[in-house]
Amino acid sequence: MSKSIFLSVVISCYNEEANLKGGVLDEMADYLKKQKYSWEVVITDDGSTDNSLRLLTDFAKKNQNFRILKIKHCGKAGGIYRGLKIARGKYILFTDVDQSTSLNQLEKLLPWLSDYQVVIGSRGLERKEFPFFRRAGAVVFALMRRVLLLREIKDTQCGFKLFEAKLVKKIFPYLDVLGEKAKGWAVSSYDVELLFMAKIQGAKIKEAPVEWEDEDISTSKGKNYLARYFKESKKMALEIFQVKFNQWRGKYNKR
């Protein structure tokens, strides 16, 4: 049986060559090596079409606490799920390759674990480097989501979330998005469904302010940023309504 550890950092990677070359893995390793608790980093390469897999593999050969899993392209949530299944930590942190929220922000989440099963980072609405249309979109999305679901949470979309492993491993397999066919790089509102399911299970959720600054320098996720943003925004809105519909039909009844 695999030895249990304190923390697993789980990341899904798709076409992140530029960010990887920028040294994000070194930054993660440098921070984690200074911690007193046991840890691992599990990164799934979600069928990248650039040099991400080679860069990840080369780094892991020199850093034994980093585990790389090559999978067929299935989207961010699917990539996280496959990493989650092999993670050995008592606690699971989801974060992003670009490290717009640095791992050092863990220090703002960890103190809450004695009282909460889920601790999520919150960026606020005044986000550095966000263009106006993205700030406006974030306000509209948050308002719609809070009217329909999770009205007590301000920011469900920050990619920096800490869970008790036994809870998140129980509920993650039931996410709707896992059944969708992925094509290319795209965001989704799977976070909303995941947090809503955690709440249904009776989990206590704490939202903690974290520092966030757009550090994403990837150039291989797709062109026409503006068109992609509006397409993804429409998709995320529809996913919110789907979660509400799922609630009405009893999908989230406590198991």
Summarize the structure.
This protein is of the alpha/beta class. It is built from 8 helices and 7 strands, in the order βααβαβαββαβααβα. Strands 3-2-1-4-6-5-7 form a 7-stranded mixed sheet, sandwiched between helices.
Structure description:
By secondary structure, the chain is α/β, with parallel strands linked by helices. It is built from eight helices and seven strands. The protein has a seven-stranded mixed sheet with strand order 3-2-1-4-6-5-7, with helices on both faces. The protein is globular. The two termini are 27 Å apart. 36% of the residues are buried.
Keywords:
255 residues, seven-stranded mixed sheet, alpha/beta, 7 strands
Total number of helices: 8
In terms of DSSP E residues, the strand content is: 15-25%
Radius of gyration: 17 Å
Distance between the termini: 27 Å
- Structure summary, number of beta strands: 7
Strand order of the largest sheet: 3-2-1-4-6-5-7
Please provide the ordered H/E string of secondary-structure elements.
EHHEHEHEEHEHHEH
Give the structural class: alpha/beta
Arithmetic mean of pLDDT = 85
Helix content: 25-40%
Shape: globular
Uncertain segments: none
Report the major sheet.
Answer: 7 strands, mixed
What does the secondary structure layout of this molecule look like, with pairings?
Layout: E1 5-13, H1 17-21, H2 24-32, E2 39-46, H3 52-62, E3 66-71, H4 76-86, E4 89-94, E5 118-122, H5 132-148, E6 161-164, H6 165-171, H7 190-200, E7 205-209, H8 225-248
Parallel strand pairs: 1-2, 1-4, 2-3, 5-7
Antiparallel strand pairs: 4-6, 5-6
Helix pairs in contact: 5-8
